[in-house]
Amino acid sequence: MKLGIIGTGAVGSAVARLAPEYGHSVVALADSNSAAIDSDGLDSERLLARKRDGESLGESDPGEALDGFYDVLIEATPTTLGDAEPGFSHVRRALEGDRHAVLANKGPVAERYGELRALEERSQGQVRFEATVAGAIPALSTIADLGAGNVTAVRGVLNGTANFILSRMAAEGLGYEHVLAEAQDLGVAEADPSFDVQGTDAALKCVILANVLAEGNGDNDADEAAVREPYTLADAAVEGIEHVPPSALELAAEDGRTIRLIGEVSQGSVRVGPRLVPEHGTLAVTGTQNILQLETRHAGRLNISGRGAGGPETATAVLADIGRLGV
Amino acid sequence: MTDDARPSGGRERAYTVRLELVDEPGELLNALEPIAAQGGNLLSIFHERGSLTPRGHIPVEIALEATPEGFEAIVDALRESGVAVVQAGSERYSEHLTVLLIGRLVGTDLSDTLSCLEARAKASVTDVSLSAPEGTAGTSSARLRLATAEADRTLSVVHEAAAEKGLDVIEPLTPGAER
Predict the structure, then answer these.
(1) Degrees (nearest 5) of the Cα angle A77, A209, A238?
(2) Could you say which of B132, B139, B171 has the minimum Cβ distance to residue A276?
(3) What is the pLDDT of residues A232-241, one digit of tens each?
(4) CB B18 within 8 A of CB B59
(5) CA distance B22 to chain A (A)
(6) What residues of chain A lie within 8 A of the CB of B131, using their CB?
(7) Considering its fold, how many domains does chain A have in total?
(8) Do A274 and B133 lie within an 8 Å CB cutoff?
(9) Domain that holds residue A177
(10) Are A311 and A13 in contact (CB under 8 A)?
(11) Are B75 and B102 within one domain?
């Protein structure tokens, strides 16, 4: 497939680098300033090296990349809330041009799900967004395989930064600020960590899961589900981990428990917050690991864990989505 | 019988109360006092001194006669005096709920918060651990273990009571279904 990649952060550039290995060529690569376009395929490594040296990616305007010769648009610009722009418009242009769109950007899927599906309906192209939920973990494709209607609840640890902080605090008895600074030094937390530690990032993933599950339950519950507006971040009850003191983790540990930032989608409600879980239980993953737990109607509980963030990890999910477009 | 001497009109019935007492002198007497004060008629006391609960408390089973109203008042009074009631009448507090409270616990009167909880929820606080590394004026954490007949309802009462005092609650993922 010919890929047009917009966004050259960790995920976008990893997709560009790995694409040839998966048999794809990159025909457009754009950041917010400029774009490189070549219908015969670009040398991603060279372009990204240029960018690292402070040069621009290419001679073209970023908008021109959207009209290019690609089969699939990879939307990997930073997640924005509310109108989810400019990501949403990028995807719209791809779909209106009857191209596929694969998103790593959570904004359009969490905040404008209904519009996204409506655009897809009118397009020859498809929308896929495995990479928006839990990085490399095949969350959405597992739900699709099971049938969304057979999944009654989903919960899990969906933010590696918050999980790193809580597990370090518990293991070392250190305070939040101290561990946050350490996480920033290690590159596990961003300079502005609010998206992660306030639970917003995990909530966006849960909202996306809620929308996917609601589609599957539409058949069973036609009257209610059909009229329900898609979920957005505003439907989620969200609490972060900034107020969790080391003393709370100590008291939890004395009782064989620990605290994790858990996202939960159950019976139509979306919730993210610090919760008590058994210290050595399935959900108490450590470090930057993520875990997703699915409750199914006929097959009990399924757990999938792994790396929930990172360039090559998330790119793996993007490339898996591209692979699914072929069939 | 002395029905006519009781303030309320209901007929007296026999009830059983199961308590868990701390192994300290005077605790049993403490627990019996509210029964007499509320006009209950003590029938028997089974003090299982040899069989401690996992938390080192002594289970005590008390049989008494009281009117339904009197019995309710006795259970409330027992809880208010800090006695852990694990079963009252036919109602067995078979579910356990552990929660953490975080915030200015001491400054907002933790014992008042706890009596509030017991009074509003059908629950009994069976264990409290407090950690206040910043001293009584700073942020502290408490772990509460509650015995209850309805973990879900008790949990929402915990949230209400905590919100009134500006405290954060960390609840288990599956209330009631735990050990």
Answers:
(1) 85
(2) B171
(3) 999 999 999 9
(4) yes
(5) 19
(6) 247-248, 250-251
(7) 2
(8) no
(9) 139-308
(10) yes
(11) no
Is A205 known to be catalytic? Answer: yes
What pLDDT, on the 0 to 100 scale, is given for residue A318? 98
Q: pLDDT (tens digit, 9 = 90+) per residue, A235-263?
A: 999 999 999 999 999 999 999 999 999 99
For residue B39, is it within any domain? Answer: yes
**Which of A247, A264, A273 has its CB closest to that of B133?**
A247
The band of A22, judged by pLDDT with boundaries at 50, 70 and 90, is: very high
Strand segments, DSSP code E, in B22-136 are 41-47, 58-66, 84-88, 91-92, 95-103, 123-131
CA torsion A200-A204-A209-A211 (nearest 10°) is 130
pLDDT of amino acid A208: 97
The amino acid present at A59, given as its one-letter code, is E
Helices (H), chain A: 10-18, 44-52, 62-66, 87-96, 106-111, 113-121, 139-146, 160-172, 176-185, 194-197, 200-217, 222-227, 246-254, 311-325
Of A203-212, B123-132, B168-177, the poorest mean pLDDT is in B168-177
Question: Are residues A285 and A157 in contact, defined by beta-carbon separation less than 8 angstroms?
Answer: yes
Q: Which of A243, A255, A277 sits opposite B102 (nearest CB)?
A: A243
Distance of CA B156 to the CA centre of its chain: 17
State mean pLDDT over A105-109: 97
Are residue B70 and residue B23 in the same domain, yes or no? yes
Phi and psi of A211, rounded to 5°?
-65, -40
Distance, CA of B150 to chain centre: 14
Chain A residue with Cα closest to B168: A243
Among the candidates B72, B92, B112, a domain finishes at: B92
Residues A121 and A165 in one domain: no
Give the Cα separation of A214 and A221 in Å (integer). 10
Do residue B20 and residue B82 come from a single domain? yes
Same-domain status, A118 and A199? no
CB contact under 8 A, A251 and B168: no
Whether A266 and B157 have beta carbons less than 8 Å apart is answered as no
Task: Give the residue from chain A lying closest to B145, CA to CA.
Answer: A255
Using a CB-CB cut-off of 8 Å, the residues of chain A touching B171 are: 275-276
The predicted model gives A293-320 an average pLDDT of 95
Pick from B78, B106, B98: which is nearest to B167 by CA? B106
CB contact under 8 A, B98 and A275: no
Contacts of residue A34, defined as CB under 8 A and 6 or more positions apart, other chains included, come to: A56, A57, A58, A59, A60, A61, A62
C-alpha to C-alpha distance for B165 and A167, rounded to whole angstroms: 28
Which chain A residues have a beta carbon less than 8 Å from that of B170? Answer: 244, 248, 252, 259, 273-276
